[in-house]
Amino acid sequence: MIKFLIVAYRKNLSLTIPVVILSMTVMKIIGGCAENYGRLQRSEEVDKIFKDYQVLSDHNYYYVGPEGRPDAIMGIQNEYTLETTQWTQFNASDNTLKKWVDTINFYHNTGVRYYPYGFFILDPAGSRLGIWYSIWDWTTVMMKDDRRIQVFPPAKKDFFEDGDELDKMEND
């Protein structure tokens, strides 16, 4: 891009200024969009929390997917409000968390080569918003403002999109 600007400057100064302004505007838009998005970070600590069925009292718990076999379970710190129509809040202090963690582990460990794991849910600055447990390790985390967040359901990979996993299962 810099080389282009130097050539443009040498050929026509009147073209250079609009190109520089346009480039700066595009970069600001791209950078501005990115500053509202968080991410997942794989964590042995979170993995252990879920596998030990530990309920964090300062988190509200949600699941997404079928009630009998959720695709993901997450806990969001109480100081944040989750804006969602897709996640369902549940009482993790009863036996539900244990049942669903066991279900995710059993279902996904019987034939499919993807295993559940724990992740921290982080804001754009890397601060912890909550915890996540699923075989799916990718989602969109969006900060709506300082205390309101949106976490989308996991982006799921088709297990048999190229036939590899199906072939491996049949050959095992």
Main features:
single chain, 172 residues, alpha+beta, globular, disordered C terminus
Describe the protein in words.
With 172 residues, the chain is an alpha+beta fold. It has two domains: 2-34; 39-151, no CATH class. It has five helices and nine strands; from the N terminus they run ααβαββββαββββα. The protein has a nine-stranded mixed β-sheet. Helix 1 packs antiparallel against helix 2. The longest helix is centred in the N-terminal third of the chain and has 22 residues, at 13-34. The radius of gyration is 22 Å and the shape is globular. The relative contact order is 0.17. Residues 25-33 and 162-172 have low confidence and may be disordered.
What is the residue-averaged pLDDT?
Answer: 78
Sequence of strands across the biggest β-sheet: 4-9-8-1-6-7-3-2-5
**Tally of structural domains:** 2
Shape: globular
Number of E-state strands:
9
C-alpha Rg (nearest Å): 22 Å
Biggest pleated sheet: 9 strands, mixed
- Supply the helix-strand structural class: alpha+beta
What portion of residues is helical? 25-40%
- What is the string of SSEs from the N terminus onward? HHEHEEEEHEEEEH
Distance between the termini: 52 Å
Sequence stretches where pLDDT stays below 50 over 5 or more residues: 25-33, 162-172
Provide the β-strand percentage band: 25-35%
Q: How many DSSP H or I helices?
A: 5
